[in-house]
Structures are given as C-alpha cells and as structure tokens.
Design brief:
single chain, 93 residues, alpha+beta, four-stranded antiparallel beta sheet, 2 helices, 4 strands
Length: 93
C-alpha cells in the first residue's frame, strides 16, 4: 500500500476494566493506523485517557466494509475522521 491509498479502518476487540479487579466490559476499538503496532499503541493510549485501568486486547483486523448498525456505524465514521472510537458493552457471563 502506498501513501496515496486510503488506509482501512482497523478494529480491535477485547475487554477493559475501569478499576483493577473490577467488572470487565467488552470493547471494540476502531481507528486508522499505518500498522498493527501503531494501532495497538493508539488504542491503549486512548483507553488510558478515558480512565480505563486495564485492557486485554484479543483480536485485530481490518474492516471489510462500512458497518450497517449503530453504534459501530458512528464509530467507523469517527475512525475515518482520525479518532480512536471506543465502543463498550456488557460481556455475557
């Protein structure tokens, strides 16, 4: 991929904790980064800035297209605009 091509939106999935030992939440992060290492670094920095004490990232990959539903649709748009979009949700027991 050369610098003139638009980079795909990266999605990272995992779990986050507001407090060490607290309740885990599922997380999807969307962002645009030049490589996986940069994506993970930006994701962790953004989570820390939002007050998360711990994060466990499980998978990373490129989005194949625009999501159909909210909140992922807005998160995808935010990523295209340079944001690190964070979506949290309750994890099933």
């Amino acid at each position: 991929m050369n610098d003139n091509e638009e980079r795909p939106v990266t999605i990272i999935t995992g779990r986050v904790w507001r407090r060490k030992g607290g309740k885990a939440e599922g997380v999807h992060l969307m962002l645009v980064a030049p490589d996986d290492d940069s994506a993970v670094r930006r994701a962790l920095e953004s989570l820390a800035a939002e007050g998360y004490a711990e994060a466990e990232l499980d998978q990373i990959g490129d989005m194949d297209g625009v999501p159909d539903d909210e909140p992922h649709l807005s998160a995808y748009q935010g990523a295209l605009e340079g944001e690190v979009s964070i979506i949290t949700f309750d994890e099933p027991l």
